[in-house]
Design goal:
Distance between the termini: 25 Å
Shape: extended
Helix content: 40-55%
Order of helices and strands: HHHH
Structural class: mainly alpha
Number of strands: 0
Radius of gyration: 20 Å
Number of helices: 4
Largest sheet: none
Length: about 80
């Protein structure tokens, strides 16, 4: 994979903000919901680049796309750490 060193889990995580008020007070400031901060375009462009590389890798493996789309669940008495694929 040809990704930059800047792209890691912390790059795409939300920034930590110190809250001085409750979340409800912040949400309903001045009696109306607070506007959402737009997602930075630079991060969106980086995500598209990463997605392009991941999708190319998925297409190279024969049944990987079908496997990733398949849904499954656990029945009573089944444990995920005991499953064999």
């Amino acid at each position: 994979m040809q990704t930059d060193a800047k792209i890691n889990d912390s790059y795409f995580s939300k920034s930590e903000k110190k809250r001085t008020r409750s979340a409800e007070d912040e949400f309903f400031e001045d009696g109306k919901p607070k506007d959402k901060e737009p997602f930075p375009e630079s991060k969106a462009a980086d995500q598209r680049e990463v997605d392009k590389e991941v999708l190319a890798a998925v297409k190279k493996t024969e049944y990987l796309a079908k496997y990733l789309k398949a849904s499954w669940g656990l029945s009573k008495g089944e444990y995920p750490h005991q499953l064999v694929f």
